[in-house]
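Hello forum,

I keep getting stuck at the same step: I have a sequence, I want structure tokens, and every attempt I make locally crashes halfway through. Rather than fight my setup again tonight, could one of you with a working pipeline run this one for me? It's a single chain of 377 residues.
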Amino acid sequence: MSSTPRRVLVVGGGAAGNAATILLRRAGIDVDLVEEKDDWNATAGSGITLQGNALRVLRELGVWEEVKAAGFPFGSVGITAPDGTVLHVQRDLRTGGDDLPAAVGMQRPRLQRILIDAVRASGATVRLGTTATIVDQDASGVTVRLGDGGEHRYDLVIAADGLGSATRAQIGITDEPEPTGMAIWRVAAPRPAGVQRTDLAYGGPAFIAGYCPTSDTTLYAYVVEKNRDRSSIPPGSYAEEMVRLASAYGGAWPEITATITDPAQVNYTWFDRLLVEGAWHRGRVVLAGDAAHCCPPTMAQGAALSLEDAWVLVQMLAGADAWDDELLRAYYERRIARVRPVVEASVQIGQWQLDGVRDADVPGLMARTMTMLRELP
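Reply #2:
Ran it on my machine without issues. Output:
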């Protein structure tokens, strides 16, 4: 290992960036974390489903007990008819190992605050409301200009700045996210007492209508449909639009839809796919998380894959004498073998629905993919 303390810039304070920062600091590496949003995205989003392989990384970060206390663990998924009749209950595979729940539902802002607190406690330097521009790089490091105009030198830059990553474009990677043809309406709502797991209704006016408990008192609900031109849906109509779609569903849905009144609390997002091929780095700048890959949430693996990227990358950095092309290519090879099947399966499940394929082997594809994820990344 080098006798000179290494210094890393992490661009982006989402799941991948926060996790990488915490783990790098634990390895004794100096870290600057820059995040473009002034509020560190501390209030964004409604809910998130964390599969076991995500929980495994959160345990490595030292925040599992807080996540468990703040979230809602469950171990099965219910498949219902549009009227709410339960057709089948499927036990979830524990992809994080038998000592962790199969899944935990959480309010996304609560997870972000837990990670923010852990980053602060790590001793990393955090700059909010700050952008980063790659000035130049050579074999020994990267020169970066931050939003305040100051230039800094780093041994490595981790670009964890999300789906629309500016850093990805700066280093000449031209891959861009592509719409899959689907869109999702999401909202946080009070949890009806009977909701103890994720339930999914297929059919009706939407492809999927589902909900996931996020605490003892909350859940997030979602409706998936074919994507529409965003300009045709005024933001002020978001609550009305989601209620219109969701009102066709029974079970817990009438109680949920009665609370959907504020359009500002409803989120409308297209599903995208991205998988950067060939390498996730250029020189001493390397991608992680959504900057490198994203997929529809049909398997609830977006955050899990991002957290795994951070865990694997820092393990490799901490154990290496040379942070060189060979190491960063090995990181790509290790991750692409795991990420590709998840992205492809997540997209395929949605495509089957778009195409109206009634005999699609969704359970089989999900079981094969989730079984692979049970292995350590």
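The mean pLDDT is 96. If your local run keeps crashing, start a new thread with the error log.
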